[in-house]
Amino acid sequence: MADEAPASPIDCKRCTGRARHGNCTRPEAAGLIPAGVGFGIAWAPEGHAGDCPAFDPAPVPDARPYRLDRIEGDAAHAAAWDDECIERFELRVMALRRRGFVELDAEDLAERMHLADVEQDDRGRCIQCAHLAGSVPTGWRCKAAGMAGVVNPLPLALVTLGQRCGGFDLAAPAGSFRMHCGEGSSSLQAALVRARGQGEQ
Ligand code: SF4
Fold first, then answer.
1. Which of 33, 60, 103, 161 has its CA 20 to 30 A from that of 41?
2. What average pLDDT does the segment 63-88 reach?
3. HSE of 177 in the Cβ direction (CA atoms, 13 Å)?
4. Cα(168) to centroid(ligand 1), Å
């Protein structure tokens, strides 16, 4: 059964000392077994973490790892987004959703791609590359690992990162990557209609 989310920031579920099965890996320091016993398997009672001398909070994972910071956000929105920018953003979000990213992460990543357009950053991301296989739940593989000089499987942190890769091959629909707002694309509208259609199937 899945762990319930901890109700309080001071909870054994948030402690680095909590083992996978919920027992404490530091029972003596935590006062769960008598001092000097040396070894024991113990589960902390409800509310124990509040007074536990061994409580060591685990770092809280970033809930929005791809979110632009304020300066980046200002740069991404310095110019009003025209229809093409919005359509390109939608396309990217849909492509990322199909790769298993949750809605917020897909939107944050698409916004990050827009910022790259604005800054004319020529680095690509694996998630925009035709050689990438996989998804968030299944993991990632580069189909051109030899050419790219990478080892499979690829970590999520790499596939979302802007980088210069010798194997990078721009994929559609994120193929709008190098078209900046206002440059125009007759195929963008058609791609968006197609992508929307796929999403509805
Ligand atoms: S070729 Fe490069 S950019 Fe493309 S998926 Fe492989 S490692 Fe990523």
1. 60
2. 93
3. 24
4. 5
